[in-house]
Amino acid sequence: MVDVWLGAIQSIFNPVTLLMIWGGVLLGVTLGSVPGLNSTMGTALLIPFTFAMTPINGLALLSAVYCGGTYGGSISAILFNVPGAPEASATVFDGYEMAKKGQAAQALGYAIICSCLGGLFSVVVMTFISPFLASVALTFSQPEYFALAITALTLISSLGGKGLKKATIAGVFGLLMATIGIDPMTSDPRFTFGGKALIGGINFIPAIIGAFAVGEILARAESRSDKKEVFLSKISTKLPRIKEIFRMKWLVIRSALIGTWIGILPGVGATTAAFVGYAEAVRWSKNPEKFGTGIPEGIAGPETANNAATGGAMVPLLTLGIPGSATTAVIIGGFLVHGLQPGPMLFMNQPKLMYSIFLAMFLANILMLFAGLGVAKVFSNFRRIRYSILGPCIFIFAAIGSYGIRNDPTDLWIMFFFGVIGYFMKKYNYPIAPMIIGLVLGNLTEISLRRGMRMADYDLSAFLFRPIAAVILAIAVISILYSLIRKKPKVLEED
Amino acid sequence: MFKGEILISAVVFLGSLYLYFESMKFEGHEIYGKLGPAYWPKFLLICLMVLSFLVAVDAIRERKKGTPENKEESKFDGGKVRLLLAVGFIVLYFFLMKIVGFTALTPFFLIAFMVLLGERKKIWMLGISVGITALIVWAFTKAMYVPLPRGVGIFLEFSHIFY
Predict the structure, then answer these.
(1) pLDDT tens digits for range A451-466
(2) pLDDT band per the 50, 70, 90 thresholds, residue A495
(3) Which domain does B142 fall in, by range?
(4) What pLDDT does residue A492 have?
(5) B74 pLDDT exceeds 70?
(6) Which of A99, A222, B9, B28 is deepest in the core (most CB within 10 A)?
(7) Are B151 and B131 part of one and the same domain?
(8) Residues B36 and B102 in one domain
């Protein structure tokens, strides 16, 4: 084992490999921060180039792009209310609110530190207990997925504040929007109105971009007020102090565990991890009503979780050959061009390569700190531009970001539709976050419920007899009851 | 505010009712008559109808309590005109994108939107609109190979100059 580690260290700590990792991180952060470009696209485009490299260099480059891209999305989410990558969708809730309060530098600092911590945690977990975790993850079945989705959805009760009914409407609306398109179980078209445009369903990225960015632009067009006091101040990332991070230690550890675990589950991914990380940050907070108003905890939760999911998603890829996310599915191509088949045999035949990848990801997460500081600084300068110039530019990037996902003009209209909805929701105090959570988790909730019910011969009680599902569902019920009990004294006080 | 709240509740309620009837059309493939494609949407639509009704009731209660209403909401002022113009610009931009293409249309849209948001410096408007369009065209078509809409006819030829 020591020999393998020494070999891996020797492979990684050479100038060419280090340059690959640094270049990969920088490219990943840059791609992640531009809406419409992401790490999946970056890794896909780089695969042919890795053919000419050694397997270690090639895979180190792809892993570094993956790590950097997952963090990069938070930069534009915080500065412009447009998540650069799907994984940063939950970061918008508090990140942009902090930026609006003139705390963009602090928000960027929390995002980068927490991303770094989440990523490092998951790499350590991946290094030491990959095979064990992969086997446990395979015991997760539909009832467990359903329980996980329901637990995340109970966040709506915490986010609602005084307007619980409006928050629930928003959440249910999001769930309903997720049902549009071909039914994944029976292939029936649902709410497509006989056309082809909606057959592919509602992609949540145009919806998120629309609800947040376009909604904001429309509101600004109506009010036409340039808040120069915030936008014209110079921003440079302000890293939080150690004691500030230490204050959130349990939040970070919890989010890192959640992110790693969700990353391991095949097909769930970093975006869900970010939302569940956010949900749990709200649930365990002493001041849940402050979430969504621009607090560091609202950034730490999703950012730790989404980067932790990068390492997590590599676990089933490396141990079982099953990709845990879209980007890891692309990274399989990186193995295949070198004639390697990810899976248990690779651990036995190529241990040095495996541990080199672990080490490369560990380094990538550290280098991400420096790459993030540089890219964030460049992007921060754009916030000094007047909104009358910046607003239309944000809109164009939002439009291209939506269009670029599937190269489908329908996504532009979806973005616009959600922009109008977002405008009215803001105006009439309907929280947007529950709608997005519903939209993101809608498919998982419905499909896991229906498949789980079919597995249990349509007996819902069977969900409760599966120990893991029962425990997760119990957490959901307790958290709803707790949030209702906690709200009651406030209502009495008001009366 | 009250009128808006009631209107939104009504739109949600009636929209949900319409979609409920729409969802009855995809009840062809239930497995053993249970949890077919309509089951989950119907459940959600019933929830939406009940909740929108409750929100409307809350709004009426608030009004009866005598919470002061924001009279400015009902005014049709310059802000509303700008909002409608912004919506109009966006709809027009998306509609024309297929015909005119991204490269030829985007600078004009950007300038129009900047004027709408109150920008007056012509050099800035021209420079930024052309610069941003050029940057996006380069980054998406040359660096990342994402095809942008080219338009038709003369606009298609025009787009071939760049990508």
Answers:
(1) 888 888 888 788 888 8
(2) very low
(3) 78-162
(4) 38
(5) no
(6) A99
(7) yes
(8) no
**B26–A189 C-beta distance less than 8 A:** yes
- Asked whether residue B16 falls in the same domain as residue B50, the answer is yes
What would you measure as the largest C-alpha separation in chain A, in angstroms? 72
Question: B74, B94, B128: which is the final residue of a domain?
Answer: B74
Distance CA(A281)–CA(A283), nearest Å, equals 6
| Residue A184 touches partner B, C-beta closer than 8 Å | no
**pTM given for the model:** 0.80
Q: What is the mean pLDDT of residues A312-335?
A: 79
* Partners of residue B45 in chain A, C-beta under 8 Å: 176
pLDDT single digits (tens) A129-177:
776 776 677 777 888 888 888 887 876 766 655 678 888 999 999 999 9
CA Rg, chain A, in Å?
22
Q: How far apart are CA A264 and CA A145, in angstroms?
A: 13
* Alpha carbons B124 and B126: distance in angstroms, whole number: 6
Amino acid at B153: G
Note the pLDDT of residue A162: 61
- Which residue do the tokens 């928050």 mark? A167
Instruction: Write out pLDDT tens, residues A266-295.
Output: 666 788 889 888 988 888 888 888 888 889
Q: Tell me, what's the pLDDT at B107?
A: 95
Which residue intervals of A285-409 are DSSP H helices?
Answer: 297-320, 326-336, 344-349, 351-382, 387-406
Tokens of B42: 């119907």
B36: left (phi over 0), alpha (psi -120 to 50) or beta: beta
Which among B74, B91, B113 is the end of a domain? B74
Pick from A40, A39, A17: which is nearest to A28 by CA? A39
Between residues A344 and A423, the one the model is more confident about: A423
B138 and B126 within one domain: yes
Q: Which chain A positions have a beta carbon within 8 Å of B47's beta carbon? A: 168, 172
| Number of domains chain B contains | 2
The answer to whether A422 and B2 have CB atoms below 8 angstroms apart is no
B34 DSSP assignment: B
ipTM score: 0.91
**Contact (CB<8Å) A191/B41:** yes
SS3 A182: strand
Tokens, residue A478: 């307790």
Q: Please give the single-letter amino acid code of residue B142.
A: K
B54 CB within 8 Å of a chain A CB: yes
Residue A309: name the closest of A259, A257, A365, A253 by CA.
Answer: A259
Can you state the percent helix, strand and coil of chain A, rounding each to 5?
75, 0, 20
Summarised one tens digit per residue, pLDDT across range A347-406 is 777 888 888 988 999 999 999 988 888 888 888 777 778 888 888 998 998 898 888 778
The answer to whether the beta carbons of residues B22 and A191 sit under 8 Å apart is yes
Do B105 and B49 fall within a single domain?
Answer: no
> B150 and B82 in one domain?
yes
Helix H or strand E encompassing A190: strand A189-190
Measuring CA to CA, how many Å separate A318 from each of A17, A131, A371? 20, 9, 26
DSSP B143: I
Q: Is the dihedral of CA A154, A211, B60, B14 positive or negative?
A: negative
Structure tokens at A261: 């675990």
Q: Are B38 and B104 part of one and the same domain?
A: no
> For residue A27, which residues of chain B lie inside 8 Å, CB to CB?
none
Report yes or no: B110 at the A interface, CB cutoff 8 Å. yes
Pair B54, B122 in one domain: no
Q: Give the E-state strand segments of chain B in sequence order.
A: none
